[in-house]
């Protein structure tokens, strides 16, 4: 992947290739593609919004169905492109840029690996059964579907596992794969598969665990290799162009842009007392009242209140005037 100035930019896939390509790219190698410098950064920021949104959702303890909706919304909002033919390119480019950004330390690698695998899991679940099988073929899995004879011989055991998870017993048209148990450690640890003679019987709706394990292993190895390339050559070769962008992206602020005009009215100085009574949260209301009573706040309190007033829409001049009037 080569980063160029704005004059040149070509598609990674032709229209025919795009149809036959996997629904989810497996990111095995950097694409033979020229990327504009502004796209290099903007695509990465858009994907980073998705990954940080997933991280925030998981840290807040969102339920599986809530996380599925969150991931769908995050992807739709951030990974779209004005040209439909470029959506796949954006997906691939953004992944490889962030791979370069997050390969540089062990902590960065762990976070990126975890979030990319979580994203892959959700995107895989959104696919049709046919598309999921296509991804399995791309990984060249050695597992084989259980035939009817074998299914009938273990049907009761499979039903016991399903019922233990609160699911109905599998029917004759259910698809199960027979895989070495060590390839699905997550399912084994949770006792969500039937194991016999060293093999785990994985239902089609559980295949994501198998595929995600392979995806994680592949990405983990490539992150280490990317770090070696970054350390040995890329960082120095691109020190005047890409290196500053790469080193800044992992700590980029992705919150609201307070420099842009707001869609709602700002609070004026004459309204501040009434707004404080009716709408301030208790912590800010306490700081506000203490400032009015004592004409003094400690440094930390002034900083918190000042940033809060900025966030709710009080402009800088009014905020300074308010603090001066209360202190004096």
Automatic annotation (TrEMBL):
Its cofactor is [4Fe-4S] cluster. GO terms for molecular function: 4 iron, 4 sulfur cluster binding; metal ion binding. It comes from the Eukaryota. Keywords: 4Fe-4S, DNA replication, Iron, Iron-sulfur, Metal-binding, Primosome. The keyword DNA repair does not apply. It holds the Pfam family DNA_primase_lrg_N. GO terms for biological process: DNA replication, synthesis of primer. Residues 273-325 form the DNA primase large subunit C-terminal domain. This is DNA primase large subunit C-terminal domain-containing protein.
């Amino acid at each position: 992947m080569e980063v160029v100035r704005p004059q040149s930019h070509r598609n990674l896939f032709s229209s025919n290739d795009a149809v036959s390509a996997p629904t989810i790219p497996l990111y095995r190698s950097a694409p033979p593609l020229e990327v504009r410098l502004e796209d290099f950064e903007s695509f990465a920021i858009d994907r980073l919004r998705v990954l940080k949104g997933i991280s925030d959702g998981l840290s807040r303890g969102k339920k599986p169905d809530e996380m599925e909706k969150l991931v769908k919304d995050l992807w739709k909002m951030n990974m779209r492109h004005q040209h439909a033919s470029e959506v796949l390119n954006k997906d691939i480019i953004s992944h490889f840029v962030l791979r370069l950004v997050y390969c540089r330390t062990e902590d960065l690698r762990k976070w990126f690996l975890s979030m990319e695998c979580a994203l892959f899991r959700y995107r895989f679940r959104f696919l049709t059964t046919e598309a999921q099988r296509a991804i399995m073929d791309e990984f060249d899995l050695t597992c084989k579907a259980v035939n009817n004879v074998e299914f009938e011989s273990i049907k009761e055991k499979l039903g016991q596992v399903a019922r233990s998870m609160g699911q109905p017993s599998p029917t004759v048209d259910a698809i199960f794969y027979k895989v070495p148990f060590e390839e699905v450690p997550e399912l084994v640890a949770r006792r969500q598969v039937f194991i016999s003679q060293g093999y785990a019987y994985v239902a089609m709706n559980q295949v994501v665990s198998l595929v995600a394990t392979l995806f994680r292993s592949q990405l983990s190895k490539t992150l280490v290799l990317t770090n070696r390339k970054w350390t040995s050559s890329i960082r120095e070769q691109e020190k005047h162009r890409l290196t500053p962008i790469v080193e800044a992206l992992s700590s980029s602020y992705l919150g609201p842009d307070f420099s842009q005009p707001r869609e709602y009215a700002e609070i004026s100085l004459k309204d501040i007392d009434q707004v404080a009574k009716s709408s301030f949260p208790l912590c800010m209301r306490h700081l506000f009242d203490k400032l009015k009573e004592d004409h003094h706040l400690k440094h930390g309190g002034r900083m918190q209140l000042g940033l809060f007033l900025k966030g709710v829409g009080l402009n800088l001049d009014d905020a300074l005037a308010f603090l001066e009037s209360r202190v004096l």
